[in-house]
User: What shape does this take?
Amino acid sequence: MRRLDASKIPRHVAIIPDGNGRWAESRGLPRNLGHKQGTEAVRVVVRAAHELGIERLTVYAFSTENWARPPEEVEAIMDLLDRYIVAETDYLVSNGIRVEVIGRMQMLDARIQERLVEIVRRTEGNDELRLTFALSYSGRSEIVDAVRAIAREVEAGNLEPEAIDEKCLQAHLYAPEVPDPDLLIRTGGEHRVSNFLLWQLAYTELWTSETLWPDFTKSDLVEALAAYQQRERRFGRTGAQAREPVS
Ligand code: IPE
Ligand code: IPE
Ligand code: MG
Assistant: This one.
């Protein structure tokens, strides 16, 4: 396994775990078995992220657009999510992992909503790794929801339109206090963001892999981190400026 620079571990890693369906189809199996194997990979990667000292992990578990998939597939994914939480609760609670969720939760089944509320509540005192699931999530919906909330404040006379700036919009996102991801990993060979964290990805480093999500392991995560450590993040400045020591 590659050696990593412990001082340059990205603080926030976001993942688009893609390729479950193709993993199953290439084996002549039903897509749902790909999703099942995909939850196994989530289990593995959460442990690996914790071991590697990543502070925050955000996993795109289900997009707003994924609701348009065949109902049996949607149901199977929701069922697997439910099972994942039940099976992982003890591990998450006792290993300092704090679970959070972002997205339009009201679109989820009441049973899943209750399960999520419970795991969020049971882990809220934890602070080793913050694990966020984006569920029924879309970056555009998140921005729309923020704009609606801001419009309500303006309408109520509590906010001047001139006071609306990037900080204000950020403050109305689903998880306003969460710093932007340093690294985005997408598996499954596609090079697109598929409506994930559109606001937050402004200066995130992107890393894609041909590996299908169910095959993703700790060593793939290490490879992504090693690639990240070779990058020079410039944030619009020149390379020389970016290399100046921060005073
Ligand atoms: C990602 O795998 C999981 C979800 C979208 C829930 P896919 O199901 O998109 O797998 P492919 O892209 O069809 O192979
Ligand atoms: C992105 O994967 C969403 C999740 C992994 C939850 P998709 O498979 O839905 O994305 P597209 O359709 O290939 O862009
Ligand atoms: Mg896909």
The mean pLDDT is 97. Helices lie at 20-25, 31-52, 71-94, 110-122, 139-155, 166-171, 218-230, 239-243. The longest strand covers residues 129-137.
